[in-house]
Amino acid sequence: MSLQQPTNTPPRVAIVRTGLANLASVLAGLRRAGADPYVTESAADVEREDHVMLPGVGAFGPAMEMLDKHAITAPLKARIEAGRSTLCICLGQQLLARTSDESPGATGLSIVDRHVQRLPASVRVPHFGWNLVEPPPGARLITKGHAYFANSFCIAEPPEGWHAATTQHGIRFVAAMERGNVLTCQFHPELSGKWGLALLKRWLGTDQCEDDCEC
Amino acid sequence: MLTRRIIPCLDCNAGRVVKGVKFQGLRDAGDPEELSASYEEQGADELVLLDVSATPEGRGTQVETVRKVRARLSIPLTVGGGVRSAANAQALLEAGADKVGINTAAVEKPEIIREINHSFGAQCTVVALDVARRLDKTGFEVVTHSGKNRTGKDAIEWAQRVVDFGAGEILLTSWDRDGTRSGYDLELLHEVSSRISIPVIASGGAAHPRHLIEAFMAGADAVLAASIFHDGEYTVEAVKSFLAKQGIAVRI
Questions:
Q1: What is the number of structural domains in chain A?
Q2: Residues of chain A with pLDDT under 70
């Protein structure tokens, strides 16, 4: 048995299950970024973990029903409002809004005072592919680059109090937002090549380690 | 601005990448995991993994191949070939596919498109349409079973129907052009892409970067190519830089 203590263990990330899942890409992406992710439906995990991820699976209404059913809505909202490390991807970003064209009548986390709208009929929907993310001045995590999107809905107007990056497809809309240690992305960082991997590492804080680091 | 996508396609048989003309005379073209990683490195925007195994034993290796490719790949992965049910689709998604391509099953039982859309979302639901010109030259028809079965279905009307059933994207393969190196069927591409609102991936016939430009001009949102890259004639990087010089928006 080795007496040597590990100097740095991979950060655990609790991934919240919001529906019939395709979480393989998210799990693989977080592992490549140096994390130790696991999938959970437990409110206690959402309250306790240093890092929590809300993935982009399902539709607005059913995802909120899932969060409500497992009593995750309140602790999730609390940690995002407190600026604790949370990553919300695709539908995950949209859930921060109040309402959505996707599920009329459903109420979101209502952290930002926005409505999620369908992309205009003037362009191809779903918005599939790589589009340019343009960050605002003062963003700490989000940099300029091409990211992979797969969305039919969006938050058009950047909310107050957040550093919001935008992109353009028919209309200009919110591509990503950050506040404190909360990062939300309309695109998929786990599918956005090296640029996306670097973003995941900055969010996790694993970007400080060089390749020759012994941690 | 949304960039145009370049998508290398890996035809897999029993865990190996193969290639052939019109799906006949398959020969070995490498290891899927190695090739995938190399295409991402070259700047591929997505990858398509198509299972062309003729036997159930060959098919059985597909999930394991997807799992291995996924662990290394940081770009989207579409997997198709032999998807006959929502359960097949789920197995591939759980192994690490981001989208599944439904081909013959969608023609025989289009409800499967709706089923996969409802379970996993439009962003996972790709319908692969194999099309040939009618023998009497009066338009285009849907074909199945590696082109052997002509269904008589009008391909343009069928494309519009699969959108109504919930397809998120169409992978449009010209059976006449596949493997011929004579360029995409531009008339087919224009006819389909101008009539539907979802993205269209052009497939079948690419041998030169100028074929890709022609496809984008005809309305393709993305282009699929296999032999042009496998033979090492062009890297994805070289193709993209050619396209960029011709004024096509690509991710460099």
A1: 1
A2: 1-7, 20-21, 209-215
- DSSP track, B207-244: -SHHHHHHHHHTT-SEEEESHHHHTSSS-HHHHHHHHH
Helices of type H across A50-142:
60-69, 73-81, 91-94
Domain range enclosing B66: 5-245
pLDDT digits (tens, 9 = 90+) for A89-142: 999 999 999 999 999 999 999 999 999 999 999 999 999 999 999 999 999 999
Instruction: Answer whether residue B251 is part of any domain.
Output: no
Report how far apart, in Å, the C-alpha atoms of A92 and of each of A19, A22, A58, A96, A153 are.
12, 14, 10, 7, 12
The one-letter amino acid code at B14 reads A
Residues from chain B that touch A128, judged by Cβ atoms under 8 A, are 5, 123, 168-169, 199, 221-222
**Is the pLDDT confidence value at B131 over 90?**
yes
Tell me whether residues A193 and B40 touch, CB distance under 8 A. yes
- What is the structure's pLDDT at B25? 65
Q: DSSP states of B66-134 as a string?
A: HHHHHHH--S-EEEESS--SHHHHHHHHHHT-SEEEE-HHHHH-THHHHHHHHHH-GGGEEEEEEEEE-
Is A188 an annotated catalytic residue?
yes
Interchain CB contact of B119 with A (< 8 Å): yes
Average pLDDT, chain B: 92
Over residues B218-237, the mean pLDDT reads 91
CATH code for the domain of B209: 3.20.20.70
